[in-house]
Amino acid sequence: EVQLVESGGGLVQPGGSLRLSCAASGFVFDDYAMTWVRQAPGKGLEWVSTITTFGGTIYATSARGRFTISRDNAKNTVYLQMNSLKPEDAAVYYCKLETANNDYWGQGTQVTVSS
To answer: What is the pLDDT of residues 67-81, one digit of tens each?
Structure first.
């Protein structure tokens, strides 16, 4: 059974940093790209970043230059380092696995950016 468990969210002041983690199990982690998606209050899902099996990374314009996605295949974990956070980054952040047959989501972790 695929499981994705996010952690690391919380309350941070504008300009601050957070590192999100997503612990994965139930599949061969090394074989799949992993993605972070967020949803702000009252808004739709927004793709944030994806890391490929080889460590290649792509970012949404809103995240580029401030966020860094990484993965540790030995720990079956994907990370999202978020720096220079802005109020508009406040959202529930989800880890997502896309396979040929299905998409899998974690439960999400809340990020609040406020002074």
So the answer is: 999 999 999 999 999
CA geometry: angle 36, 14, 19, nearest 5 deg: 35
64-66-67-70 Cα dihedral, nearest 10 degrees: 90
**Inter-residue long-range contacts of 31-34, CB under 8 Å, 24+ positions, other chains counted:** 32/97, 32/98, 32/99, 33/98, 34/69, 34/71, 34/78, 34/95, 34/96, 34/97
DSSP string over 20-53? EEEEEESS-GGGS-EEEEEE-TTS-EEEEEEE-T
Between CA 112 and CA 11 the distance in angstroms is: 5
Q: What does the pLDDT read at residue 46?
A: 98
Task: Look at residue 14 in the predicted model and tell me its pLDDT.
Answer: 98
Q: Residue holding tokens 């969210």? A: 9
